[in-house]
Design goal:
The chain is mainly α. 48% of the residues lie in helices and 7% in strands. The chain has helices spanning 7-17, 27-46, 58-71, 100-108, 115-122, and strands spanning 85-89, 94-97. The radius of gyration is 17 Å and the shape is globular. This is Phage protein.
Length: 129
């Protein structure tokens, strides 16, 4: 996969929006994975090759990356996450969590492009060739 030419600069901006205040051990991996996924999704949606994505899309890419990380709690410590609970029982209190493979599958299927950004991306969208 081609790497966006300004990937490192955009990653630095993303780190400014989401500082590593909890010293998450996988912090860099989460930022890189999310940014690569968002850039790929934007490229696919707009029909613009990754190497040709204009710098004007960077604020949108950053917004989508921040929203994705926050929504899916990828930087929230496991003991503070609320989205991984699969079921709760009241009698004698039982809590079960989703398996890591279920979570990973959900992350792979995540659509990072939300309705809030479609109108912006439509301004750059090309016809498929």
């Amino acid at each position: 996969m081609d790497k966006y030419p300004r990937f490192e600069e955009v990653k630095k901006h993303l780190a400014d929006f989401l500082p590593n205040t909890d010293n998450a051990p996988n912090y860099d991996s989460v930022l890189e994975f999310t940014l690569e996924k968002v850039i790929s999704d934007v490229s696919i949606y707009t029909n613009i090759p990754i190497l040709e994505l204009p710098e004007e899309l960077e604020p949108t890419i950053l917004g989508l990356a921040v929203q994705t990380i926050d929504t899916h709690q990828w930087l929230v410590p496991k003991d503070q996450q609320v989205g991984n609970v699969q079921s709760l029982s009241e009698g004698d209190t039982s809590v079960s969590f989703r398996s890591p493979s279920d979570i990973y599958s959900a992350l792979q299927a995540t659509n990072t492009i939300t309705d809030n950004y479609v109108m912006l991306l439509n301004n750059f969208r090309r016809l498929a060739q």
